Amino acid sequence: MKVETLPVTQGSYNLKDYEEAYKSFDWKDAEKVFSWAETGKVNMAYEAIDRHAESFRKNKVALFYRDEKRNEKYTFYEMKKWSNRAGNVLKEYGNVEKGDRVFIFMPRSPELYFSVLGAIKLGAIVGPLFEAFMEGAVKDRLEDSEAKVLITTPDLIGRVPVDELPHLKTIFIVGSDVEEAGPFVDFNKKMAEADNDLDIEWVDREDGMILHYTSGSTGRPKGVLHVHNAMIQHYHTARWVLDLQETDIYWCTADPGWVTGTSYGIFGPWLTGTSNVITGGRFKPENWYQTIEDFGITVWYSAPTAFRMLMSAGDELVKKFDLSSLRHILSVGEPLNPEVIRWGMKVFNKRIHDTWWMTETGAHVIANYPCMEIKPGSMGKPFPGIEVAIVDDQGNVLPPNRMGNLAIKKGWPSMMRQIWNNPEKYESYFLPGGWYISGDSAYMDEDGYIWFQGRVDDVIMTSGERVGPFEVESKLLEHPAIAEAGVIGKPDPVRGEIIKAFVALNEGYEPSEELKEEIRQFVKTGLAAHAAPREIEFKDKLPKTRSGKIMRRVLKAWELDLPAGDLSTMED
Ligand code: WTA
User: Fold this and answer.
1) pTM of the predicted structure, to 2 decimals
2) Coil, strand or helix: which one is 214?
3) CA 334 / ligand 1 centre spacing (Å)
4) 259 lines ligand 1 (CB under 6 A)
5) Were 147 and a residue from 52, 72, 103, 456 both cysteine, which residue would form a disulfide, CB within 3.0 to 4.6 Å?
6) 22-442 and 459-560, same CATH topology
7) Are 65 and 102 in contact (CB under 8 A)?
């Protein structure tokens, strides 16, 4: 197969030579950037905020916050004070102690960030929830984690079945005119009265810090627990992959309800002392470009779906804004189609750098580093100090170019430490030999680049040919009529499976039999005859997770008239 390559991104100082770093990198040395590597007693929030507040970065802006109503900024010094206040409020009125689960269910706002940091300062375990969750999803998570405290807003409290949650003792309401009765406490009022000083709870590096619920292909959502030790990897990946430097203005578009919004919306940028832009409100292409221009964003971390939505908003729109501050763009969460990278080159004159990781891995594992040539369609190479391999179902390492399970050797610093309340589930991720099995299939080429093929259960076998749905979807997206595409294997008595594509069209295109045939030919001639979808169905919109992944299993359920399973992570 011929692969195109794109040259390296210039101007990064962190990782000059990947090959050299890969040989010599050692996590034991890497952790020495933190003084606690000696003492063992640590707190993430101290390292992310207070350490800078006590340094030359004291008056540097840590948080720029903007939504339709608010436009605020906070220095590291102010973030220290506000997070201390939040810690005091949670301790005094919620009796929060080390190890307690504190859940946060609200849209992005400065108070959300003060609360996360304040709770972590007390040694509590924070559980962030998407504001889009409805009652069932909220209940599942609060119940399973036995959350003691919840921080939410007047708009969302109606979705919390308070009477059915015996462990939930205190509910802080962030809003105005809050009536304080029973478990309800007025968060803003208490914050206004709180003390600026707080005794930080120094914890062990292996103590719990954050609990992210994520859904698998079966069963209820599972709680993935991360510990303070993860900061070693958050820090180094923020340096090497995000390439964060002293003068950067960084914007991660993810919500903290998703791991990207915590690992790289909170920890990575602040551990490195970077100015972090957070925006609230709904997605609108104009607003996004305006955000880049107004704040002078230099490093921008987003997701393929967002890029594709910007892409379909048209190239003319891009030209209305001054985006010249951008120097490094990254993507995560789903396959980054070569088409999107080419678009990025065209409109931003920048490569979009892919990163691969999971809620369970806690931080980047594979990336297209600034210093590497990018092969569009490949996720890049493993982070130094992390052993990644393609293994078969028994844990045998496969040679280059063979498709198999994307696996990671146990022991990277930010690896999940527990599935909450479910040790069997946790163990089921690992094969003998210490391989963590990601559930993704991929292959590694001769140069060590890793090529994503799909979730293991999504791979299509048609007439004996193995087809990765991603490849077909990428090709479909290159067709001018197509805005979104999801591809599944549909059982077929003759061929095993046939390829069925669900597509949403760009504005100005109408569904028709002619268009179907044209699309089929497009894939047939552009990719391979066996990869061309035999069936095509037009949809207004495809089912996606909040993190932007097309939910193929929902498409499959539609197609086969089966129950769609857990939909709590589906976008509204
Ligand atoms: C998918 C974590 C292709 C993959 C940030 C993984 C990707 C799942 C990429 C984890 C990428 C993530 N290319 N697929 N660069 N990054 N994925 O835990 O299937 O919500 O197993 O997100 O997202 O999803 P999670």
Assistant:
1) 0.85
2) strand
3) 5
4) yes
5) 103
6) no
7) no
User: Percent helix, strand, coil in the chain (nearest 5)?
Assistant: 35, 25, 40
CB atoms within 10 A of CB 277: 26
Spell out the residues 6+ positions from residue 119 whose beta carbon is closer than 8 angstroms to its own.
86, 87, 90, 96, 102, 104, 126
Pairing of strands 71-75, 222-227: unpaired
Q: What is the CATH number of domain 22-442?
A: 3.40.50.12780
For ligand 1, mutation pick of 352, 549, 551, 571 (most atoms within 8 Å of CB): 549
> What letter does residue 550 receive in the DSSP assignment?
B
Domain ranges of the chain: 22-442, 459-560
pLDDT by residue for the chain (572 residues), tens only, comes to: 455 666 655 555 455 677 777 888 899 999 999 988 778 889 999 999 999 999 999 999 999 999 999 999 999 999 999 999 999 999 999 999 999 999 999 999 999 999 999 999 999 999 999 888 888 779 989 999 999 999 999 999 999 999 999 999 999 999 988 999 999 999 999 999 999 999 999 999 999 999 999 865 444 678 999 999 999 999 999 999 999 999 999 999 999 999 999 999 999 999 999 999 999 988 899 999 999 999 999 999 999 888 988 998 999 999 999 999 999 999 998 889 899 999 999 999 999 999 999 999 999 999 999 888 899 999 999 999 999 999 999 999 999 999 999 999 999 999 999 999 999 999 999 998 899 999 899 999 999 999 998 777 677 877 766 677 887 898 899 999 999 999 999 988 777 789 999 999 999 999 999 999 999 999 988 777 778 999 999 999 999 887 778 888 899 998 988 877 777 777 76
> Which residues, listed in sequence order, are joined to residue 454 by a DSSP beta bridge?
441
Fold of 459-560: GMP Synthetase; Chain A, domain 3 (3.30.300)
Distance (angstroms) between ligand 1 centre and the Cα of 537 equals: 26
